[in-house]
Amino acid sequence: MAVWFALFKKELRLGSMGFLIFLILQVFLMGVGVYFNYRSGSNAATAIMGVILTLSLLLYVPVYLLFNVIQERKTFHLWMQNPLPAWSMLLAKLSGSLIYFTGSLVVIGTYTWISLIRIIDGSEGFSLFRVAILATLVLYWTAVGGGVNFLFLWTILRTMQSRIGKLAWVVLIIGIGVYTYIDTKLYQSGVIDALTHWGRIPQSFFYHFLVPNGSAVPSGYLFKPTANGSFSVDTVYIGSFVFDLLITGILFLITTWLMDHELEAS
User: Fold this and answer.
1) I want to staple 46 with a disulfide (CB 3.0 to 4.6 A). Which of 33, 189, 249, 253 is the partner?
2) Any residues with CB less than 8 A from the CB of 200 and at least 6 apart, and which?
3) 90, 83 Cβ separation under 8 angstroms
């Protein structure tokens, strides 16, 4: 455990520069929102900027890991010589990204919360607190999935580079294209729906969760067509979460196997 924590702290030191760069960019964009807020005399500018920054967090972990592996290019062979198993090394790298993701989420979330609370009256609409909880869960779910997918693609690329050199990029791009094509065909054929469309979560659950008691929002508001001025919520299935979790787990296992048996410290 002490060896793992030492590696984890190393990952935090390595990723601190990327975190600071992202943080400075975030603060700058927040300042832009405040500036337009002041010029327009409306609170909408900061709220819009907050929502945009929140959505950008969907890509935070993959982009952070990209910066991380670029910084580690010259010392990659040293990282590979670590006595820990591959799953433990990857977990340290992923955990470091989630720590910095959490830091950015706190900063952006606070800014967005303050911006939205100035223009939304929670007693007449959605519960902003519960919307924030739901958004946080979605962001963490996406962060873990995005991080594992990036590490999977990065490991495949490194493995191929030790064998076919620069052609690895071409093979990887073609592979992503083939995967996208097959995935699209599976969705169109209904195979994915057959695997995931079970355990339907009642839409009333989202209404009772997001809308506080005594709110003026009608119960059907969330589920009417958006053309009628409502907020549409697609049907959600537990099967979709289980399927995504299984895929993420399989990709992580493949990544660890490649690192343990095929990846060379070059």
Assistant:
1) 33
2) 235, 236, 237, 238
3) no
Backbone angles phi, psi at 197, to 5 degrees: -85, 70
The answer to whether the CB of 33 falls within 8 A of the CB of 115 is: yes
Please report which confidence band the pLDDT of residue 95 belongs to, taking 50, 70 and 90 as the band edges.
very high
**Which three-class secondary structure state does DSSP give residue 229?**
coil
**Encoding tokens for residue 208?**
């009772």
- pLDDT at residue 199, as a whole number: 87
pLDDT value at residue 234: 64
Confirm if 124 and 215 have CB atoms less than 8 A apart: yes
**Comparing C-alpha atoms, which of 108, 102, 126, 82 is closest to residue 28?**
108
Residue ranges of E strands in the chain = 200-201, 236-237
Give the angle subtended at the CA of 200 by the CAs of 195 and 203, to the nearest 5°.
145
Distance CA 69, CA 255 (A): 15
What local confidence, expressed as pLDDT, does residue 225 receive?
Answer: 47
**Residue 170: both structure tokens together:** 């071409």
What tokens does 174 get?
């073609």
> What backbone torsions phi and psi does residue 82 show, to the nearest 5 degrees?
-60, 135
Q: Is the pLDDT of residue 137 over 60?
A: yes
Nearest to 225 by CA among 217, 234, 237, 216: 234
pLDDT of residue 215: 60
Residue pair 64/95 in contact by the 8 Å Cβ criterion: no
* Residue 210 pLDDT greater than 60, yes or no: yes
Question: Where exactly are the structural domains of the chain?
Answer: 1-119, 123-266
3-state helix vs strand vs coil in the chain, percent to 5 = 80, 0, 20
Residues in the chain: 266
